[in-house]
Design a protein that fits this description.
The protein is an alpha/beta fold. The protein is about 25% helix and about 30% strand. The strands form three sheets. Strands 8-5-4-3-2-1-16 form a seven-stranded mixed β-sheet. Strands 9-10-11-12-13-14-15 form a seven-stranded mixed β-sheet, covered by helices on one side. Helix 7 runs parallel beside helix 8.
Length: about 250
């Protein structure tokens, strides 16, 4: 399993891209602005998109992807997520006002995009990869994912705040090879982080006590301009953990 970080920033700016992860060649986890850095040939290989939630920094390039590869889609691209997430994407993006509804194009009986809602806790298998959807705690219905293949385990929190569900689910696995978890704000913005239901270093450290594994931990979704301060506070709060600042363009082979 190869995981390529297309985008992992909490915002945009020079060289900053929002959340999108390419798993192998055919699967995306989220479709933020990082997706736009793929070549046309790379985009044409994508068959599955797993959304963590409906916010634009995680969905903004999905409509542009479909528009770009429309003519090459001989079978539909499948978009997975919580029912609430897919309903929001359809209502607010693919609504013929903000963007054409590719769930009805070129024809309702033969669309280039299909939705596949997943129940919380759902597990499915795609070409030897086992994908597990886990509930997380965000301002809109959200999910994290664990992807396992050949005994290697990758866990991604998506956008979340203090919760038990994600950590309990991850603890069920005998090992975790890589954990990617968000921390959007510095401790000085704790009040805003709590309102927006994002981690800050203090709340992340409190939740990581619940994790029984000791994987390499990669921090994602840091807000532009505050990255150095946020990561410095994380390192100070987690002296016993192996924490790394995730960067766009990184590739993980598991």
């Amino acid at each position: 399993m190869r995981i390529r970080i297309l985008g992992c920033s909490g915002g945009i700016g020079a060289a900053l891209r929002t959340t999108s992860l390419l798993v192998d060649k055919d699967m995306l986890v989220d479709a933020g602005t990082g997706l736009g850095d793929l070549t046309l040939d790379e985009m044409r290989c994508i068959r599955h998109v797993f959304l963590t939630h409906s916010h634009l920094d995680h969905t903004s390039c999905l409509p542009l992807l479909l528009d770009t590869i429309f003519d090459s889609l001989k079978t539909p691209l499948t978009v997975y997520g919580r029912q609430e997430t897919l309903d929001a994407v359809k209502k607010y993006i693919f609504n013929w006002v903000m963007w054409p509804d590719f769930g009805e194009l070129p024809a309702k009986h033969n669309p280039v995009m299909v939705y596949k809602p997943l129940e919380l806790g759902a597990r499915l298998e795609l070409d030897g990869r086992n994908i597990h959807m886990i509930e997380v705690n965000h301002t809109v219905p959200g999910a994290g994912y664990v992807i396992e293949q050949g005994g290697k385990v990758f866990a991604f929190s998506g956008d979340t705040f203090t919760n038990d569900s994600f950590w309990q689910a991850v603890n069920q696995y005998p090992r975790v090879d890589a954990l990617m978890v968000e921390t959007a704000f510095a401790n000085g913005n704790r009040k805003l982080a709590d309102m927006a239901k994002h981690y800050c270093p203090e709340t992340l450290a409190a939740d990581l006590v619940k994790l029984k594994h000791d994987p390499d931990i990669y921090i994602t979704h840091l807000k532009p301009g505050g990255e150095d301060m946020i990561f410095k506070e994380i390192v100070a709060a987690l002296p016993q953990r192996r924490v790394h600042r995730l960067k766009g363009g990184e590739v993980f082979d598991l």
